[in-house]
Amino acid sequence: MSALLWVLQIVLALAFLPIGVLTIRRSRMQLVGVAPWVEDFPEAVVTAVGALEVLGAVGVVLPGVLGAAPVIVPVAATGLAILMIGAIVEHLTRHELDRISTPAALLVAATAVAIGRFGPWPL
Q: Chain-centre distance of CA 115, in angstroms?
């Protein structure tokens, strides 16, 4: 099971790191075409979301690889799960039902990592 959790951790990192970096580096206006939700938030919030995505992506992998502060892994996974709950709520609010599947899948992966690493399969 630990191997499956590692796969999920890597998938989470590969999903969140590039999106987070893109969200931080591009302006809100540049992001509107690919992420229409940014219209609903000020630029500072959009940048903060990107920073949280980058921190979460790094936090689900790096502590486990380095063997330092492994408790950060499930904490980061919990943070990513919370972000995905927010993403799902935002898509529902905007009536974008076709955009819910990706955050829902990432929510399941992040929740599995959080439960697994807090519980029976810690690092």
A: 15
- CA–CA distance, 66 with 68 (Å, rounded to integer): 5
Contact 28, 38 (CB under 8 A): yes
Q: Chain centroid to CA 58: how far? A: 10
For residue 66, count CB atoms less than 10 angstroms from its CB and return exposed for 0-12, middle for 13-18, buried for 19 or more: exposed
How far is 86 from 103, CA to CA, in rounded Å?
9
Q: What does the pLDDT look like over 1-22, one tens digit per residue?
A: 899 999 999 999 999 999 999 9
- What's the predicted TM-score (pTM) here? 0.94
Q: Is the dihedral of CA 26, 96, 12, 79 positive or negative?
A: positive
Token pair recorded at residue 109: 């992966």
Domain boundaries, the chain: 2-118
